[in-house]
Design a protein that fits this description.
Blueprint lengths: L16 E3 H8 L3 H10 L14 E3 H15 L4 H25 L2 E5 L2 E8 L6 E7 L5 E7 L6
Antiparallel strand pairs: 1-2, 3-4, 4-5, 5-6
The structure holds a DNA duplex (9 and 8 nucleotides).
DNA sequence: CTTCTTACA
DNA sequence: TGTAAGTA
């Protein structure tokens, strides 16, 4: 089973950009630190040319926030960056997995049922997953032609 | 007004 | 890492 590309972003997140002042306020990191991390290669900013202002996209905004959180937890900058690398790698894998796994979403008696694709090789039924009222994960195999509600 | 670099504490 | 200076 492969993703049906049903869930796409309505906006181009690569055009969601911030300059150093905004990043500083959002992430609680001083501009001085950001320039230092930049110089050290721990984060990368794009610039139209040398000496123009640094621009950060959303991914790097998140990255900076993660590094900051690890610093606050007591890690050294080097360690914080390593933890952030691992975290972002994990996030990428999770997103990739979901992109190719989630087949659709269906609302049924108060629950959001996630269609996880065909359950069997013969494609006779779907595997659905959802969270019940106690936030416990529940899986259900449902014939393709059967109505869910 | 914001950001940049450089330099000093 | 914070801050000051002089720019762009």
């Amino acid at each position: 089973m492969s993703g049906n590309h049903k869930f796409f972003s309505p906006i181009d997140i690569h055009k969601l950009i911030f300059r150093i002042g905004e990043v500083s306020k959002i992430c609680n990191v001083s501009p001085r630190q950001l320039r230092y991390w930049d110089q050290k290669g721990f984060i990368k900013s794009s610039r139209h040319d040398e000496s123009s202002s640094r621009v950060y996209d959303f991914i790097n905004l998140v990255r900076i926030g993660l590094i900051k959180s690890y610093l606050d937890q007591g890690y050294t900058l080097k360690a914080a960056v390593e933890h952030t690398d691992n975290k972002q790698e994990t996030m990428r894998n999770i997103h990739r997995f979901l992109d190719h796994t989630v087949y659709g979403v269906k609302n049924t008696n108060g629950h959001t049922m996630i269609n996880l694709g065909y359950f069997d090789k013969e494609k006779t039924s779907y595997l659905y997953g959802y969270l019940d009222d106690n936030n416990d994960t529940v899986y259900k195999v449902v014939p393709v032609d059967k109505k869910l509600d």
